[in-house]
Design a protein that fits this description.
Blueprint lengths: L3 H21 L28 H17 L4 E3 L9 E6 L5 H6 L5 E13 L4 E6 L7 E8 L1 E7 L5 E7 H13 L9 E8 L2 H8 L4 H7 L5
Antiparallel strand pairs: 1-2, 2-3, 3-6, 4-5, 5-8, 6-7
Helix pairs in contact: 1-2
């Protein structure tokens, strides 16, 4: 096993490779690794200044561009092959008033999470379809806590301690799970699993996947 200093240097080397990959690409993005990559199953190393301020800024910029280009509403560093506890989030919200109400999906401005953790607030859970940029072509229903307490810090070291609800709480849980080596499929109702074809598109566009639950035979919560 490498020493702490050797491991930190190895992580920095990967981060610099990601930054360089972004700089070389026409759109400034880096490759997203897919299920089967070891970084997606590792418990991420806490971020503790392994990068200089300018390197961290450059890495987060690549992550942000890559997330937007995919497109997605969140991206964790392990999805770029870097097992460090960093994630970026941003959601424009739903254009459908019905979806926005049922899913509690409001706009989530761009933010960075450093070493995030979450704990459920209350017992209420809700099930909706999710996909993942590292599991391309599939989606499944995941029952998640409707409200969570989010702790950690931002990219400037400012502590974060807040309660997040609705779709934003779902994004927080999904991305933080990535930092613990957990994919959404590990928590999914597997009978709901669908490829993103005609049927999958139909199920995912329901405000709440009640038709899918009936047709495929799975509980929603």
């Amino acid at each position: 096993m490498p020493s702490g200093a050797q491991w930190d240097q190895a992580l920095r080397d990967v981060a610099l490779w990601i930054i360089e990959a972004g700089a070389r690409s026409d759109d400034g993005v880096a490759p997203i690794v897919q299920a089967g990559h070891p970084a997606l199953r590792a418990v991420a190393t806490p971020y503790d200044g392994q990068l200089s301020a300018s390197e961290l800024t450059a890495l987060l910029d690549v992550m942000h561009r890559t997330m937007r280009a995919a497109p997605g509403v969140g991206l964790a560093a392990p999805q770029l092959g870097l097992p460090v506890a960093l994630a970026v989030l941003e959601d424009p919200g739903s254009v459908s008033p019905e979806h926005a109400e049922v899913r509690e999906r409001e706009r989530l401005p761009y933010r960075v999470l450093v070493n995030p953790r979450y704990t459920p607030v209350g017992d209420e859970r809700v099930g909706f379809y999710e996909g993942c940029l590292s599991v391309v072509g599939y989606q499944a229903v995941v029952a998640r806590a409707r409200r969570v307490r989010l702790t950690g810090s931002d990219e400037h070291g400012t502590p974060v301690d807040e309660v997040v609800s609705g779709w934003s709480a779902r994004i927080v849980q999904h991305e933080t799970d990535h930092l613990n080596g957990t994919l959404y499929l590990d928590r999914a109702e597997l009978r709901s699993l669908a490829v993103t074809d005609e049927f999958g598109a139909r199920w995912a566009t329901e405000p709440r996947p009640t038709s899918a639950a009936t047709a495929l035979g799975f509980p929603l919560d």
